[in-house]
Amino acid sequence: MSDTSETPEPLSYELQREERIKRNRARLAALRQQSKRAVLPVHPKTRPYLHTCAAEAPWLPGGILASHSQGMCTQLPGSLTDDQLLQSYSLDTCTGLLAAGGKNGRVAVFAVQEGVLGEDCRPLLSGRLHRSWVSDVSLLPCASNLAPHEAPGLFTASNDGSVALWDLNRTSGGQPVRIADAGIHPGGIFSMHVLDADVVTSGKDGAVALTRLRPDGTLQLDQQHADLHAGVAKCARWRDSATVASCGNDRCIKLLDARTAELQASQTIAEAHSAAVNRLQWHPGQAHLLLSAANDSEMHLWDLRAATKPLHTMSGHIQGRCSKIYQPVFIWGGAAIATGGQGLHSLSVFDTDTGRLLSQEGMDGDLAAAHTPEAVQATPPNVKLLINGEFRESQASQWVDVTNPATQEVISRIPETTAAEFDEAIQSAADAFLSWKRTPVSTRARVMFKLQQLIRENMDDLAYNVSIEQGKTLADGKGDVFRGQEVVEFACNIASEMKGEFVEHVSTGMDTYSLRQPLGVCAGICPFNFPAMVPLWMYPLAVAAGNTFVLKPSEKDPGASMLLAELTMEAGLPRGVLNIVHGTNDTVNRICDHPDIKAVSFVGSTPAGRHVYERAARNGKRVQANAGAKNHAVILPDAHPEATTAALTGASMGAAGQRCMAISAAVFVGGMGQWETSLREHAQRLKLGPGTQAGVDVGPLISPESKARVERLIASAEQQGAKILLDGRSPSVPGYEAGNFVGPTIIAGVKPHMDCYTEEIFGPVLVCLEAETLDEAIAIVNSNPNGNGTALFTKSGPAARHFQSEVQVGMVGINVPIPVPLPFFSFTGWRGSFFGDLHMYGKAGVDFFTQPKTVTANWRDQDDSPGKRAPGLEGVGSSTPK
Fold it and tell me: Contact at 8 Å (CB) between 550 and 565?
């Protein structure tokens, strides 16, 4: 936003701060007593991480929070008598009424008296008002332009793209009567805000639209800005009849002038957050104050008179794999801010004056004493299991911390799944297989179509989770998700991939044909380095082919798998088809040993891959195990200088070198001399820092142990006679001194016997060797025990053909540094980089998850009576037609 030349007036909330804080604490004490009377039972099926807003799920799973004009907050369950309201996405209140909208287009309206739901918590009205989930509801009591209707109206907005107005005083079939509706956003509506019957909406198409209720009772689209936000427009909120604020996945906040013929952005706050901005709220008493909430787990309070940076940044509320804050709300006349959040069943209250966290409400229903952010972080959330369609708390006695590699902060804990829980997950998958294998292949494909759509819509959220748990930059995190999404897109074509073969008349009256049928229960064991991509390489293709699946995410970064599982369930996958267990060695061994598991997919280190392959194969299972690598780039003297240097730098340092297809060794034919300076200069320009920070090129390594291993191998190279051209050990990253950072490193003069060459470094380190000829370089590549990927940089076609023919590596790039095939091919590692015979995704992936069945059929055209034809065939084959 452009700065203002005027000095802002002193803000009223900057005065008498301590007095306000004391008053807020007194209100919290009163709220503690009120909440005990307002707590109501919660449906046991409630899913554990809802799209939590300040009007929803504060300290009870599935609950909702209503703020009243009297300044009190009351807990109300988001689902009472209707299972379809287990996920309440939106809520609004007016005098004596509370409306909630949720999953599957359901809306319920309750009577509220003195903070308590009437009629034993039963809704006054309940029904499915839309074809898809209800993103927002707004009660409109007795508006003059609703005449002759005297009763309150209810506006609803939905993911089906429409806005509707309902008369709550008239019902038909137990549902309110629709007064008017309008299709606004074809891709779906994310938010709606109503001011005097004027409706502003934001949509998945990136647009913000203004719709007005006309005197004749119809809704008419009045203004629309079609490209206001890149990607999804998450929220639009009226300040007054002239001004609208909007935000979106592009991390921007824009102020719009609603008086113009078309909505236009008058001011912009670029990069308002480090992730998608979900919600905006105007301060009820000070029109220049705007609150924003985002997927970076932070809320910002902006003074729009001089919004070069936030007035306050409020954090410490949510820690863990789900870091989204959706719908905060000002309470107590704007003196405080209450928020829930996805992944943590608690309500936090912040002081508006200072941004200080005042208190956090726990699931026990009592407001705790005021907590510091440090105290909140001391109790990270537990990652759930997914068994038979339910996300549930494990009964494990042992837990493993999940840490942010940039800070060492514990952000969640995963359980060592118990033997009983593991067996239950396998049984759930086995039971689901009986019906899932008979589900039409077109139905299974439609689930994949919906899943890829949901992944696209939630790309920013998934990438941010990858960044905070694994350490990747946000750009690398999006790449992680996107390469997995491509396999989901391939799975959409599963019907064509499942086709068999047919030969007619293999003998007299006899045909032979083949079928591809699913195996049964399959399992996947995932690595830490691609927490979104690798799970998507595994289970979508398996379940699309008719199998059921048990997934074990990496214990270091399970969050992406859990978010993907949530999206997969939303896409329509039935209960039990996908299950998730957690753990380390014991869980891996159970997967290898359980007799009901028919196939195991694995990605990880070579020792672990060999163990899984040998143990699972010994138990009669199919195994595909992608293991370690030492990927070489061979550079000929004629290679393009700038393009080759940039490719080598990105392929070796990107994702902090933690890629199984990273170029970790470069072989320079004819010597390295001409490349040394430019390579070092390129690498020096890379910025080191936390992945969520803008402009960062190289994030942290996954763990302190990984950092220690990488630095040990750099030191060993120096001790064994190599030359350190660029040393990334012990870098300075201000504010992140505890992070697992190793900077870009280049080692020259490396020989094949050195530890830095024989071991997989898995860090931002490029080791450089020299060869006299191309054949000598090929011999170096072929003598390495691994065979995942390799690349040649040259302008010579004959040299390229010779290289691709003679090199003993499964994936070859010609002037392509990381030649990972697209999903209509397969990921084809060789030698020590792969154990098994059927590779991941592509046609080989379909073959891995299915088994061929060959049928030979002989249908006689006569029954057992000599000379008698089968019914209907009397004239078939006769010389005289009948």
Answer: no
Nearest to 255 by CA among 264, 247, 245: 245
Instruction: Compute the mean pLDDT over every residue in the chain, rounded to the nearest whole number.
Output: 81
Written as six digits, the tokens of 657 are 């070198």
The most confident of 52-66, 194-208, 431-445, by mean pLDDT? 431-445
pLDDT level of residue 133 (50, 70, 90 thresholds) = confident
DSSP string for residues in 670-702: T-SGGGHHHHHHHHHTPPBS-TTSTT--B---S
Task: List residues bridging with 876 in a β-sheet.
Answer: none
Rounded to 5 degrees, φ, ψ at 446 are: -65, -35
pLDDT of residue 568: 95
247 annotated active-site: no
pLDDT tens, 527-571? 999 999 999 999 999 999 999 999 999 999 999 999 999 999 999
What does each C-alpha distance from 605 to 424, 484, 608, 630, 743 come to in angstroms? 29, 20, 5, 12, 23
Residues 641-652, mean pLDDT to the nearest whole number: 95
- For residue 801, what are the contacts with CB-CB under 8 A and spacing of at least 6? none
| Choice among 235, 592, 660, 756 that is catalytic | 660
CA distance 335 to 312: 14
Write out the two tokens for 583: 């753990």
Cα-trace Rg, the chain:
31
Dist CA 394 CA 420 (whole Å): 10
Q: In 10 A of CB 520, how many CB atoms?
A: 18
Is-cis flag, bond preceding 148, omega within 30?
yes
For residue 346, the model assigns a pLDDT of 55
Q: Is 18 a residue whose pLDDT tops 70?
A: no
Which segment, 353-357, 360-364, 406-410, is predicted with the most confidence on average?
406-410
Q: Which two tokens stand for residue 694?
A: 């803008």
- Pair type for strands 299-303 and 289-294: antiparallel
Beta bridge partners of 403: 410
Most distant CA pair in the chain, distance: 109
Per DSSP, 714 falls in state H
d(CA 354, CA 357): 9
Residue 499 region by backbone torsions, left for phi larger than 0, else alpha for psi between -120 and 50, else beta:
beta
Contact call for residues 275 and 473 (beta carbons, < 8 A)? no
| Residue partners of 115: CB distance under 8 A and separation at least 6 | 34, 37, 38, 68, 72, 74
Unique residue bearing structure tokens 């070579």: 606
Residue closest to 676 by CA, chosen among 812, 768, 573: 768
CA atoms within a 13 Å half-sphere pointing along the CA-CB vector of 491:
31
Q: How many residues does the chain have?
A: 882
Residue 750 token pair? 């490396």
Write out pLDDT tens, residues 375-393: 333 467 899 999 999 999 9
> CB of 180 within 8 A of CB of 126?
no
Band of residue 337 on the pLDDT scale cut at 50, 70, 90? confident
DSSP run (H or E) holding 59: none
Q: How far apart are CA 257 and CA 550, in angstroms?
A: 52
Please tell me the distance from the alpha carbon of residue 291 to that of residue 585, in angstroms, as a whole number. Answer: 46
Listed range (22-26, 521-525, 644-648, 819-823) with the worst mean pLDDT:
22-26
Q: How far apart are CA 668 and CA 682, in angstroms?
A: 17
pLDDT bin (cut points 50, 70, 90) of residue 414 is very high
pTM of this prediction exceeds 0.90: no
What SS3 class is residue 169?
Answer: strand
